[in-house]
Amino acid sequence: MSPAATSSESATTQADAPQTQVTLGGKVITITGANRGIGLGIAECCLSNGAAKVYSIEIGETGDDFAAVAKRYPGQLSAVNANVTKEATITAAIDKIIEEAGALQGMVVNAGRTHHKAALDFTKEEIESLFNINLFSAFYTARAAARAFIKLGINGSVVFTASMASYRPNKRVPSTPYGASKAGVRNMTHTLAIEWAQYGIRVNSVSPGLVKTAMTYWVPQQPDWEQQLKYYGGFPRLAEVQELGGAYVYLLSDAASYTTSIDIPVNGVIGSKCSK
């Protein structure tokens, strides 16, 4: 074998070598619902791990928390308006992002909402609203991203935000429609991973447990919260939104190039059992 051939094969091997560093170096990442809460925590973690640009797809205006993170990362965090329950508007938002950034390597399907009450008390409108935002919009967003990846010839990554409620209910905060919609997200993760592997697209999800956000402010204010913590075991607190970010960063990174069709629970053990 000639030295030239050996050199060429060595270069090819190096180019194709698995990535051993967990980094988003130079990647363009889009997150639905990153104006605040979990989505903004994910955005912050992506930026602190080398993402070139992070875009939030929002239905409304961004707030002070978003502005504070954007100030720390000048020119790297932006928002694009779209109604995630309408696939055409999601596609238009993704097209705009690609036109501006030149690429798209990762999509975090995070937008969602919750509503806790007894199943018999839910109205038709409330049920449909939860499924529209948590499940239907998740499918539309993932499909729009996959079409963009295929068109660009990019081995992209889709990461859904599921929930520990997709595994088992919590009797203290019941929400049958919420849990069912998030279980649908986890099933969709596995099915889309199978369908899109042929395009080099990886599809995974993260299932947060109890996280400190505007939607969970009331949780530690319950009179028997200390007793609940003793029952649950695990870390005796709610998670900070940034503590979820590592799972998303890994799944979006090239270090996860052979990781698809999995869900990563990030729950500190809390929420891993039904409460009495």
From TrEMBL:
Keyword set, alphabetical order: NADP, Oxidoreductase
InterPro entries cross-referenced by the UniProt entry: NAD(P)-bd_dom_sf, Sc_DH/Rdtase_CS, SDR_fam
Keyword Oxidoreductase: yes
Sample GO molecular function, one term: oxidoreductase activity, acting on the CH-OH group of donors, NAD or NADP as acceptor
Gene3D superfamilies: NAD(P)-binding Rossmann-like Domain
Transmembrane segments: none
Family note: Belongs to the short-chain dehydrogenases/reductases (SDR) family.
Protein name: NADP-dependent mannitol dehydrogenase
